[in-house]
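Aim 2 progress update. The chain analyzed this quarter is reproduced below.
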Amino acid sequence: MKYEIDKIDKLSDYDYLKSKILIPSLKYAREMEYINLTEYKILECAAENQTIQNKDIKKFFPGKVTSAISREIRMLKDKKMLVSESDNSRTYHLNFANNFLMRGIIRMLQKENFIPLHDDE
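Predicted structure tokens:
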């Protein structure tokens, strides 16, 4: 029982969750080419900050207008990789309901011993 509580405590610590599960999951998705480099940068920014707005990712689009940034966010929303915050439609957070991102989450949870390994490979 203590072991299970310890696992919950780890996942409740956002720094742990971010460094051991979220960012590695995004890196895996990038390595497998499930997401492109631009998508990776935006999603990584969302993982680092827990939420993002257009202004947070403007640095990835030097010289581009706001509409181009909004288009990138819209594409990630359409792919179900980002979702709007309920109270502010221009603030977004990660969504791992997308099958491609979920693969990385499952892989990292297995690696960190949160779920048993299933040897398909």
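Helices lie at 2-12, 14-31, 37-49, 54-57, 66-78, 99-111. The domain at 2-111 is CATH 1.10.10.10 (Arc Repressor Mutant, subunit A). These observations will guide the mutagenesis experiments scheduled for the next reporting period.
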